[in-house]
Specification:
8 helices; 16 strands; single chain; three-stranded antiparallel sheet; L-2-Hydroxyisocaproate Dehydrogenase, Chain A, domain 2; six-stranded parallel sheet; about 325 residues; 2 domains; alpha/beta
Length: about 325
């Protein structure tokens, strides 16, 4: 199997699922892209719209159906199906309804695509990823969530904007929950190998404590702002998921902060620290054709480690409240 003979199945033809299919199509990530949704009219319309643009992108076969069989033998299954986050709702508010959808969908998908890598995008993604891991019984590297890939992109964009540098030159991660308890890893953030706390370049500013606070608040509240304005986030999450799909199907070994099952995880250089265990949250991971090939121990300061533990506890409690 090569990436150009690969098959991606996207579960859910809503704004996020359709945009992921669009991103995969225009980037030429796979030869076959299928959309599954219970709403036949919706999925048929989305597929028709996508197919009308095939002339302008790398060749692919794009299909859709309300029959789960269309996902047969997929190499990657992307699950976006779930209740939509409404203005004023947190991602955690969706946990009960979306856990139920996951519980119904996964056994059906495993029958038709038993060898796939499963990528969860449905919110609250860390809780849903943990539940999917438990239900599926698959190896942990083959079931993981989009995590804080999007949050980290927002983080880098805002830092780059303040410092007037290209976003691609900023290296910084958000860790923990994809949600209100997420943790900005300021201590290891850098631009061109210059630690951010040492950055002071004429004409390109220096981040004050206030700047950092405002940047993080904007990262954390970005989804709420977008949902209030247009009802859903879709473009950036579509592109972020496309990058994860490329990392998998192109076997890139790309480092991405996806949400995966942590086992006895400790930060770099702190072997005596209490481990974070049996919870899905985001830390930088190596992503390739196997899925999450390695979970990286990264350096954290005391505040970041405390924040990550608090985030883990929040996710763990939410999963427990649903019986997992």
């Amino acid at each position: 199997m090569t990436d150009r003979t690969a098959k991606i199945a996207v579960i859910g033809a809503g704004s996020v699922g359709a945009t992921i299919a669009y991103a995969a199509m225009i980037r030429g990530i796979a030869r076959q892209i299928v959309l599954y949704d219970l709403n036949r009219a919706k999925v048929t319309a989305e597929v028709l719209d996508l197919n009308h643009g095939l002339q302008f992108v790398p060749m692919a076969k794009i299909e859709g159906s309300d029959d789960i069989a269309i996902c047969a033998d997929a190499d990657v299954v992307v699950i976006t199906a779930g209740a939509k986050q409404k203005p004023g709702q947190t991602r955690m508010d969706l946990a009960g309804a979306n856990a139920g959808i996951c519980k119904t969908l996964l056994p059906q998908l495993l029958k038709v695509a038993p060898n796939a890598v499963y990528l969860l995008v449905t919110n609250p993604v860390d809780v849903i990823t943990y539940i999917a891991q438990r239900i599926s019984g698959l190896p942990p590297q083959r079931v993981f969530g989009s995590g804080t890939v999007l949050d980290s992109s927002r983080f880098r964009f805002l830092i780059a904007e303040r410092l007037k540098v290209a976003v691609q030159s900023v290296h910084a991660y958000i860790a923990g929950e994809h949600g209100d308890s997420e943790v900005p890893l300021w201590s290891t953030a850098s631009v061109a190998n210059v630690p951010l706390h040492q950055w002071a370049v004429q004409g390109h500013g220096k981040l004050s404590v206030r700047d950092r606070t405002e940047i993080f608040e904007n990262v954390k509240n970005a989804a709420y702002q977008i949902i209030a304005g247009k009802g859903a986030t879709n473009y950036a999450v579509g592109l972020a998921t496309g990058k994860i799909l490329e990392a998998i199907l192109h076997d890139e070994g790309r480092v991405l902060p996806v949400s995966s099952l942590l086992k006895d995880w400790r930060p770099l250089g702190r072997p005596d620290a209490e481990a974070i265990d049996d919870v899905c949250l985001s830390v930088p991971c190596v992503v390739n054709r196997r899925g999450v090939d390695a979970t990286l121990a990264v350096p954290l300061n005391d505040a970041e480690l405390a924040g990550l533990r608090a985030s883990a506890e929040r996710i763990r409690e939410a999963a427990k409240s649903l019986g997992y």
